[in-house]
Backbone:
């Protein structure tokens, strides 16, 4: 009996060796194509930008897709590298979107929109814009600016009318820092119609207010004046060979040591960030960039805005890359 069992085991082993090996099929996994970079634009809002008016922020997402989540963000970092989300919305089927937001506090702001990622596209941010939200005027005592914003080094005229206040002494107050109290900086007198004016050259975003300090005391609304950074640019070469490095240099005014600065290239009508750096000593910067494709392109540098100054944009320079021999 035992010998028969041994014979049966041996026969089974031989049969197993004779049979072909069958590989188990692995479960099929769907193939997902790599995610691509989308583009998103943000338009400059129009109309009255005041604390009492809802502001509509519009733009376009490419490729289009209904239901895509979009965030409205405000720049809060002094060096241009921190953002917070203040509102959001969704894209329509044709790629357009509208986000309506009301600002309760007046002031200068740098904003952008961000397209949230999905299985097909990467997270993408728009080119930032700068806006100034003004406080509502005080009836009978107005205040206005001749231009807003201005470039660093330019002057602005602060003017208005005090109804029934002919030949009245008025004082201009300002907040020189991006936070703090208002301080008296100039004194003047209204004319026979109650009109007044002051000319100033603020180095940074500044809050102005005009007051009557004698009895009866009166004051205007607060006026926010934006001041843009001034950025210069130069390229180390205008014509190079593919694979060579071009260094973009320049300065920023007023001083922005440690601030983020972006190098952008114009692609199909949209400025795309291709490199970045930091503003160094003497408020100068240097950004090396390797040209990887043949052709001519426009380049510019951008200093993101913030609570101190609005963003500054340099002029554009053209660089041509010739094919390698």
Residues:
């Amino acid at each position: 009996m035992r010998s028969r069992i041994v014979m049966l085991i041996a026969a089974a082993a031989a049969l197993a060796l004779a049979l072909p090996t069958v590989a188990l099929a692995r479960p099929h996994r769907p193939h997902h194509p790599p995610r691509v970079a989308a583009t998103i634009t943000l338009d400059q809002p129009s109309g009255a930008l005041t604390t009492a008016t809802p502001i509509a922020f519009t733009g376009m997402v490419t490729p289009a897709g209904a239901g895509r989540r979009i965030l409205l963000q405000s720049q809060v970092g002094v060096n241009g590298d921190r953002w917070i989300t203040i509102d959001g919305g969704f894209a329509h089927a044709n790629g357009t979107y509208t986000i309506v937001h009301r600002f309760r506090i007046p002031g200068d702001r740098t904003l952008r929109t961000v397209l949230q990622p999905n299985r097909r596209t990467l997270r993408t941010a728009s080119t930032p814009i700068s806006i100034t939200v003004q406080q509502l005027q005080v009836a009978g005592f107005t205040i206005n600016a001749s231009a807003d914003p201005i470039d660093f080094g330019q002057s602005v005229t602060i003017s208005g009318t005090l109804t029934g206040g002919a030949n009245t002494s008025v004082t201009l107050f300002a907040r020189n820092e991006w936070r703090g109290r208002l301080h008296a900086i100039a004194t003047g007198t209204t004319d026979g119609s109650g009109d007044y004016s002051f000319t100033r050259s603020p180095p940074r975003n500044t809050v102005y207010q005009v007051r009557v300090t004698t009895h009866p005391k009166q004051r205007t609304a607060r006026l926010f004046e934006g001041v843009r950074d001034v950025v210069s640019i130069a390229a180390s070469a205008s014509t190079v060979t593919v694979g060579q490095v071009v260094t973009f240099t320049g300065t920023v005014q007023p001083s922005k040591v440690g601030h983020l600065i972006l190098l952008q290239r114009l692609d199909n009508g949209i400025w795309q960030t291709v490199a970045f750096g930091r503003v160094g000593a003497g408020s100068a910067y240097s950004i090396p960039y390797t040209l990887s494709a043949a052709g001519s392109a426009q380049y510019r540098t951008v200093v993101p805005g913030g609570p101190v100054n609005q963003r500054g944009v340099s002029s554009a320079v053209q660089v041509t890359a010739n094919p390698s021999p």
User: Anything to note?
Assistant: The domain at 230-322 is CATH 2.60.40.1930 (Immunoglobulin-like). The chain has one helix and 28 strands.
